[in-house]
């Protein structure tokens, strides 16, 4: 039951995060420099840990690359 709730909660957050990144790409281009996980979390009003987990998931799906001081979005 907890897994189901977790999937529902993060599915919506997953969509919000991707929409957020797409909006940032429109402004900055496909390379988002100096964008911290904490800044994203603050903008989305969620925990940094949740953002980090979802960014890692998006990276594993091949949608973006996470580097030390930048995020490169591959799809837009």
Topology readout:
Elements: H1 2-28, E1 31-33, H2 37-44, H3 48-60, E2 64-66, E3 70-73
Antiparallel strand pairs: 1-3, 2-3
Helix pairs in contact: 1-3, 2-3
| Overall residue-averaged pLDDT value | 87
Main beta sheet: strand number and arrangement?
3 strands, antiparallel
Distance between the termini: 34 Å
Q: Which spans of ≥5 residues are poorly predicted at pLDDT below 50?
A: none
Question: What's the number of extended β-strand segments?
Answer: 3
Structural class: alpha+beta
Looking at the structure, the CATH topology is Arc Repressor Mutant, subunit A
- Please give the oligomerization state of what you see: single chain
The CATH H-level homologous superfamily:
Winged helix-like DNA-binding domain superfamily/Winged helix DNA-binding domain
Shape annotation? globular
- Beta content comes to 5-15%
As a percent range, the share of helical residues equals 55-70%
Task: Describe the structure using short key phrases.
76 residues; alpha+beta; Arc Repressor Mutant, subunit A; three-stranded antiparallel sheet; 63% helix; 13% strand
Explain this structure.
The protein is 63% helix and 13% strand. The chain is an alpha+beta fold. It has a 3-stranded antiparallel sheet. α1 crosses α3 (48-60) and α2 (37-44) packs across α3 (48-60). The N and C termini lie far apart (34 Å). The mean pLDDT is 87.
């Amino acid at each position: 039951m907890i897994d189901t709730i977790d999937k529902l909660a993060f599915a919506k957050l997953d969509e919000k995060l991707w929409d957020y990144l797409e909006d940032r790409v429109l402004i900055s281009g496909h390379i988002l420099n100096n964008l911290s996980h904490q800044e994203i979390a603050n903008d989305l009003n969620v925990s940094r840990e949740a953002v980090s987990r979802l960014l890692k998931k998006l990276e594993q799906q091949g949608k973006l690359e996470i580097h030390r001081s930048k995020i490169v979005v591959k799809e837009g």
